[in-house]
Amino acid sequence: MAARKIIVDTDPGQDDAVAILLALASPGEIEVLDITCVAGNVPLELTARNARIVCELANRPNIPIYAGCDRPLKRHLVTAEHVHGITGLDGPMLPEPVMPLKDGHAVDFIIDTLRKTEPKTVTLVPIGPLTNVGAALERAPEIASRIQEIVLMGGAYFEVGNVTPTAEFNIYVDPHAAKTVFSSGVPITVMPLDVTHKALVTDKRSNAFRSIGNKAGVAVAEMTGFFERFDREKYGANAAPLHDPCTIAYLLQPDIFSGRHVNVEIETSSELTMGMTVADWWRVTDRPANALFMGDMDANAFFTLLTDKIARL
């Protein structure tokens, strides 16, 4: 079976970095066409830097990396240095990247790639704010019919919000782009906080990464150790969630996850609930389902997959 072609749209971020490493460690199952960067966890200059650092960590300096939108479509940029540190990749001591960014804009690349490839053969994997993907769909709406699937990390239902009382960070940063994506008609699979808050990095799981012994394993342990300190303090637990790799794990082993096809709408009018993912989990409206919204996962299987793959780098 041919490897699944994907574009990873990202704002690294330690958990984004782990997701990229997981994808690059799976060349038999996943072909990373390129990585497109967006402002989110940190500003665009740093997310584009961090994506290159991660590719070099994986010994994949051949991966094309494009910089994209440096701000949301209609709002001021909100970042998360309080979680990810000033660079976005605080934790491990990794060298500055040598590989260059590709010329051109990420949004143009997404549009051009979808126009040139066979329809329904490219999956978009946005693990940051949806600005690049939303901008591409607004600029070239005909590409929607050519996308195989969008597998994204964002939103919440039972877990509600992590940056406001009602909103998850990625959706909150650019709710207007998210609204465009969820209204596009593209098949969408969502990894919300309801799932990612079950992907808990315990000390045992972190030690398993470190025990791999390669550079990537040590870096993952150091990245999660830094990134997780915020959530451990916030939630008062001895473990904290690893969000973004759930998207790649789903592409590799979908039976790890379970969910429902439901309607998901994005709030863009109320400042009180701005960026809320209004998921009709109980199907109490007649709005048609537009997303597979995940609700549960096998955390042990997830971390076994992740550890086994990182060991291959």
How are the elements arranged and paired?
Blueprint: E1 4-10, H1 14-24, E2 30-37, H2 44-57, E3 65-67, H3 81-84, H4 106-116, E4 122-126, H5 131-139, E5 147-153, H6 169-173, H7 175-182, E6 188-191, H8 193-196, E7 200-201, H9 203-212, H10 215-235, E8 240-241, H11 245-252, E9 257-262, E10 264-266, E11 277-279, E12 291-297, H12 299-310
Parallel strand pairs: 1-2, 1-4, 2-3, 4-5, 5-6, 6-12
Antiparallel strand pairs: 7-8, 9-12, 10-11
Helix pairs in contact: 1-2, 1-10, 1-11, 4-5, 5-7, 9-10
Question: If you had to describe this structure to a student in words, what would you say it looks like?
Answer:
This protein has 12 helices and 12 strands. By secondary structure, the protein is of the alpha/beta class. Strands 3-2-1-4-5-6-12-9 form an 8-stranded mixed beta sheet, with helices on both faces. Helix 2 (44-57) links the parallel strand 2 (30-37) and strand 3 (65-67). Helix 1 (14-24) packs parallel to helix 2. The mean pLDDT is 96.
The SSE string, one letter per element, is EHEHEHHEHEHHEHEHHEHEEEEH
What do the pLDDT scores average to? 96
Head-to-tail CA distance between termini: 22 Å
Characterize the largest beta sheet: strand count, sense, and whether it forms a barrel: 8 strands, mixed
Count of runs of 4 or more consecutive helical residues: 12
List unreliable stretches of 5+ residues: none
The shape, in one word, is globular
Strand order of the largest sheet: 3-2-1-4-5-6-12-9
Gyration radius (Cα, Å) is 18 Å
Specify the helix fraction band. 25-40%
Structural class by SSE content: alpha/beta
Give the strand tally. 12
Q: Classify the beta-strand content into a percent band.
A: 15-25%
